[in-house]
């Protein structure tokens, strides 16, 4: 355990000295954390053995569902958005302030947990097509939840616009000194900065400075942009290959490949889809966000992953590695394998396990079960995924 990268310890902002790695003072234990927010960051980087063996590369995954408040990388983002708002005086603990956010779930869960810990209330607006586990969890965390029908971003009732409006209404109609704060994860730079400050430095230190490729999907784009920025700009890993992992139906793939934003279905001339046509939750989007654009120039390539490949990967990871992954983690792993196949043997490919399968029992994992993959004869990984070397 490295004490130098505790979240928001100022020393975490300094380049991490690799020599530090040798120093294991006071044993291998984590020191006492001050509250649940002290359990954010410092997640393990694991080698996924079966994927490494199948590709001849070293596939490493940052286990972000081990973040302690909301069990996803969004803990880092929620904490950073709250801290930056506090520094600007936009949020004051125990004043009755409410944090409003539009989210497909993960960010809302982190905000709801941290709001309780840090003296705020949470009001979450989310689309009604997301798994029930996530909205149930938000209720249990004491957040106010508004589930709204899927709508285009131009509609005032899109979940993000609704959250923005609710925050404004709160502040305008407040009879006391309390304020509404719209966290705005899609456009706020506090999002990708959380990964520049913490996830990027952790990956660099844990991989001992040797990363040949970084592969991740994008919802807001904060993870991809923040980590790419840290590794390529702050650490000058100019040869690092940054690859977007994009689920079917998302427009980001074409944004990276061709500089334009259209989804696969639009290409075929069908009506414009606001909803990304995939079973995967959390990544894939059909609009441009500031967090994605912040790092777009640093993204070298994109891999498109079908729902079937994601389901097969999820099943594979359980069977071979005992890893129970969520849907976006499965997409990331498929794209990591595809990327590894294009690199020299022995290359190091880093990706993200964002949330765990427990958050996807009623939708993604139900679908995996319905595909009957358990009964299928065991094939090698590349045949299973339909990827040829
Ligand atoms: N995986 C999951 C499960 C998510 O909820 C999200 C965020 N919506 C992501 C991945 C993508 O993260 P980012 O917003 O940083 O692109």
TrEMBL record:
GO cellular component: mitochondrial outer membrane
Topology term for the membrane: Single-pass membrane protein
Reaction(s) this enzyme catalyzes, per UniProt: O-acetyl-L-serine + hydrogen sulfide = L-cysteine + acetate
Cofactor(s) listed in the protein's UniProt record: pyridoxal 5'-phosphate
GO molecular function, one term: cysteine synthase activity
Keywords: Membrane, Mitochondrion, Mitochondrion outer membrane, Transferase, Transmembrane, Transmembrane helix
Biological processes per GO annotation: cysteine biosynthetic process from serine
CDD domains per the UniProt record, alphabetical: CBS_like
Superkingdom, taxonomy of origin: Eukaryota
Subcellular location field: Mitochondrion outer membrane
Domain Tryptophan synthase beta chain-like PALP residue range list: 37-355
This protein's record includes keyword Transmembrane helix: yes
Protein family per UniProt: Belongs to the cysteine synthase/cystathionine beta-synthase family.
Protein name listed in UniProt: Cysteine synthase 2
Protein source organism: Coniochaeta ligniaria NRRL 30616
């Amino acid at each position: 355990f490295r004490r130098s990268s505790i979240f928001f310890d100022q020393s975490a902002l300094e380049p991490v000295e690799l020599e530090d790695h040798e120093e294991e003072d006071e044993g291998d234990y984590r020191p006492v954390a001050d509250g649940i927010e002290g359990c954010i960051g410092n997640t393990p980087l694991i080698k996924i053995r079966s994927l490494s063996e199948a590709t001849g590369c070293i596939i490493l995954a940052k286990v972000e569902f081990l973040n302690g408040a909301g069990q996803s990388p969004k803990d880092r983002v929620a904490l950073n958005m709250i801290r930056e708002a506090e520094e600007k005086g936009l949020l004051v603990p125990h004043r009755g302030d409410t944090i409003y956010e539009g989210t497909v779930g993960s960010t809302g869960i982190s905000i709801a947990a941290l709001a309780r810990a840090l003296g705020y209330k949470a009001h979450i607006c989310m689309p009604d097509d997301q798994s029930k586990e996530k909205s149930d969890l938000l209720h249990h965390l004491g957040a106010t939840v508004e589930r709204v029908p899927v709508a285009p971003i131009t509609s005032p009732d899109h979940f993000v616009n609704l959250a923005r409006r609710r925050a404004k209404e709160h502040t305008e109609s407040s009879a006391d000194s309390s304020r509404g704060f719209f966290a705005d994860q899609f456009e706020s730079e506090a999002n990708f900065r959380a990964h520049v400050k913490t996830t990027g430095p952790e990956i660099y230190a844990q991989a001992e400075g040797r990363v040949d490729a970084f592969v991740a999907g994008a919802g807001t784009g904060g993870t991809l942009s923040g980590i790419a920025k840290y590794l390529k700009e702050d650490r000058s890993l100019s040869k690092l290959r940054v690859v977007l992992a994009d689920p079917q139906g998302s427009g980001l793939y074409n944004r990276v490949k061709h500089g334009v934003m259209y989804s696969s279905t639009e290409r075929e001339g069908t009506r414009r889809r606001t909803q990304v046509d995939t079973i995967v939750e959390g990544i894939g989007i059909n609009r441009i966000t500031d967090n994605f654009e912040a790092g777009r120039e640093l993204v070298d390539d994109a891999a498109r992953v079908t729902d079937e490949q994601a389901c097969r990967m999820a099943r594979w990871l359980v069977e071979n590695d005992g890893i129970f992954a969520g849907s976006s983690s499965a997409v990331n792993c498929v794209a990591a394998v595809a990327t590894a196949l294009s690199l020299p043997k022995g290359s190091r490919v880093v990706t993200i396990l964002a949330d765990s399968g427990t958050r996807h029992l009623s939708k993604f994992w139900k679908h995996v079960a319905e595909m009957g993959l358990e009964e299928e004869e065991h094939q090698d990984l590349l045949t299973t995924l339909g990827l040829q070397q």
